[in-house]
Amino acid sequence: MAAQARNADYYRDNLLSGNRVALARAITAVENDRADAAAVLQTIYGQVGRAQLIGITGAPGAGKSTLVNAVVRELRGQDRKVGVVAVDPSSPFSGGAILGDRIRMSEHGNDDGVFVRSLASRGHLGGLSRAAARVVDVMDAAGMDAIIVETVGTGQSEVEIMEIAQTVVVVCAPGLGDEIQAVKAGILEIADILVVNKADMPLADRTERQLRDAMRARRRDGWEVPVMRTVATTGDGTADLVAKAAEHFARLPAAARVHAARGRMHKLLAATAAEQVRAGVQGLRGEAVDALCEAVLRGEMDYAEAARRAARLAVADPGSGHDPG
Fold first, then answer.
1. H or E element: which one contains 167?
2. Which has the closest alpha carbon to 215: 256, 253, 172?
3. What is the pLDDT of residues 280-316, one digit of tens each?
4. Among candidates 177, 214, 179, which has minimal Cα distance to 194?
5. Neighbours of 225 (CB within 10 A)
6. What does the alpha-carbon distance between residue 4 and residue 34 come to, in Å, rounded to a whole number?
7. Do the beta carbons of residue 3 and residue 34 sit within 8 Å?
8. Which end of the chain has fewer CB atoms at under 10 Å, N or C?
9. What is the rounded distance in angstroms from the CA atom of residue 318 to the CA atom of residue 96?
10. What is the pTM of this model?
11. Residue 36 burial (CB < 10 Å; 0-12/13-18/19+)?
């Protein structure tokens, strides 16, 4: 308890004032569930909900990372402190992030007003690691004015970004063509802003028209989803994109901002509960769990029902082997 109190004092004295060492240490703690993670969470809650949260998602190859780099440059030109949570593919060997986004954003490495953290997706299909919501809250509490969450880019399953970001920017590449019909019921439906990046390439005009047709007369809470053009490598269109994101953020009612924070908390609760149940099921011993496995193997019980019973068993009395039914 004394160590936890010392940790809480350290984060209260340093993290909330924006100390970069404390910020890095806090993010590592919550990402890896270290012993001082509880002290970090105790410190930050009640201190979140002030930052503008922008989610940038889209299919691989659309130029998301380069666009994030350009957006950070524009925000820094406005003297705003920026945090970036870049969810990278996981290394198949270490499980850690490959860090491609951090390499692409190296121009901001010496800027004390920018903090970039790469997180491993760790095979999470939604493109967001379980730690991403926590890291966003830590950056928020540390005084970041804007936080950008860039997802790994796995297609329609990226809709989880809605649980974290207040403004979702979906980035498309020229030549999307008929694929729009296939994805518009998925990832395009979550967009607050649509961007055709690499707009200096052939087919950009056609892609823009197709996106406008797909979004025609569609509004989200009174917001007409714009289709914008950018060339991230040169910065063309970035200022307009940042301005449009600021406009969307300004239009959000206070309840919507609370909803975003609540959504992050919901995600944390669900992830934590799932981890606890999984650990409980993995630790089960006894005749009851053996009987469940045998019933599935013999075809007498389907896998989903066996999993539900195992979860109830783990929660009711872990390790006892007693099946609550």
1. strand 167-172
2. 172
3. 888 888 888 889 888 888 888 887 898 889 888 888 7
4. 214
5. 21
6. 12
7. no
8. N
9. 31
10. 0.78
11. buried
